Amino acid sequence: MGGVDFAVSGSRVVDLTQYPGKVTWYVAMTLIAAVMGGFIFGYDIGISGGVTSMAPFLEKFFPSVYHRQMDDTSTNQYCKFDSQILTLFTSSLYLAALVAYFFASTMTKKFGRRKSVMFGGIIFLVGATINAAAVHISMLIIGRVLLGIGVGFAIHSVPLYLFEMSPYNYRGTFNVCFQLTIKFGIPIANIFNYFFARIEGGWGWRLSLGLVGVPAIIIIISSFFLPDTPNSLVDRGREEEAKTLLKRIRGVENIDPEFNDILAARNEARLLQNPWQNIFKRRCYRPQLVMSILIPFFQQLTGIKAIMLYAPVLFQTIGFGSDTSLMFAVITGVTNVLATCVSIGFADRWGRITLFLEGGFEWSWGRLGWLYPSEIFSSEIRSAGQSVNVAVSMFFTFLVAQVFLGMLCTMKFGLFIFFAFFVILMTGFCYFFMPERKNIPIEKMTQMWRDHWFWKRFMDDDSLIGANEMTRMEQCCEQGLGRSSFAEGTFKIHESMSYSLLAGGKRVRPIFCIASCELVGGQESTAMPAACAVEMIHTMTLMQDDLPFMDNDDLRRGKPISHKVFGEDVAVLAGDALLLAHGHQCIQ
């Protein structure tokens, strides 16, 4: 077989420590913007409960609740804050965030990460301004809805922007910083509420609601000076610009290993079609679908989110004064931060399930309720799985926030028995149905489900093959894109990815997908379309050990290797990818 130049591979094991890079000012500014985005989310969680417990705020916007609070001297204090409009002030943010999250996904893909982050910051600022200047309940609700839109954009775009801009060796640390700033935002909001409630004249609530605009301004200013991410530019076909930008962001010249893998990730993403159809219709993805629904469902029904949202209100219903209630809310928020640090420090050492079963909320269901689902989605369903997880979480946060005070009035202390019932239920679910994820790489997820006493029934070979055999060629054919035959010849591969199906420990029907190639030989060279797919004519079953090995160094140098399979000349990449040089077919 003639010269074959292999540039990148989607299936090879990449040593990410080879990615050189420094913490440049681009990275530092990105971290600042991300920290502000996380802080706003946490601040919005903590601020509403304190504001709704302030008498001047209630007197102005919710006079019926205010008079009920002032006039009720009985020992039954459970109903004095019962108002559907009052709870809508809190809950509307999460319903808006749910809707905005899906719009943010589309906008991020089309216009880039930076513009999405900037838009979220602008919406934050507008919402905070309207809330601070509110003179009518409608302004409060509109402001909260706008803040919810900002939250939807923030939870989608900010972590993605931070991940793609950060050097590899700092990504884990920066992600932890983002998580912690969410938690820090809650007690800081409670502290502000405590001091602003003491301002004479009763206008302190305006400061509480308006100060969220400060981090929003920082996000907006940062986004003006920051570029889009190289990944986003590559996704939109601007490869050369992305490569130049990556050199500036990393502060080094040798960015080829990372850039090649960005290209490989882009090409792989193009091959992953219909993730929603996969996760809902394929049996082998049933475990991930169940986890993406039940984990956020149980997370909200621990009741802790309601306590964080309404902590000062709850403390007042059991007899504490306004100032004391706000101080206890501060203590609750600080405790949550410390518990989150426990989860960050010990989740990998003790295991996820151990912390889930132990049950201290912020070091188990609080943080791990987001972490565990994100670790179990394979690439072909990750986008859909994460969206389901976020949607369920936001919907039930909205629902719990909306009905909590009404249920407290109706059920009184029985409400906490209600939450305790779900804690027992989720503990049983965790013990019997959630396998330990500790020290299991994403490539071994299928085997993890195969080994589980319950989920293995969904992991039959036919289901697995059916889930993976939708190659780009077949998907293009389904979409009505024609199939073209090319003359025999030798291909020079510029960008490539390799895939193969797994069944019974053997590799079945190897497939090699080409992102950029040209036919060489004969009288002229013919450029082939991007994202064409070359498929083996023969359906074959091969053990990996039967194939020659090619390491990453050979790969980067473009060293070809030849091997005979059923009399056909093929090139073997990293031990498992096969490219047929003759009798091929390509998709336009």
TrEMBL record:
Keyword annotations of the record: Magnesium, Membrane, Metal-binding, Sugar transport, Symport, Transmembrane, Transmembrane helix, Transport
Gene3D superfamilies in alphabetical order: Farnesyl Diphosphate Synthase (1.10.600.10), MFS general substrate transporter like domains (1.20.1250.20)
A cellular component annotation (GO) from this entry: membrane
Gene source species: Forsythia ovata
Protein name in the entry: Sugar transport protein 1
Chain segments annotated as transmembrane: 23-43, 85-104, 116-135, 141-162, 174-197, 203-226, 289-313, 325-347, 388-407, 413-434
Cofactor(s) this protein requires: Mg(2+)
Family according to the record: Belongs to the major facilitator superfamily. Phosphate:H(+) symporter (TC 2.A.1.9) family.
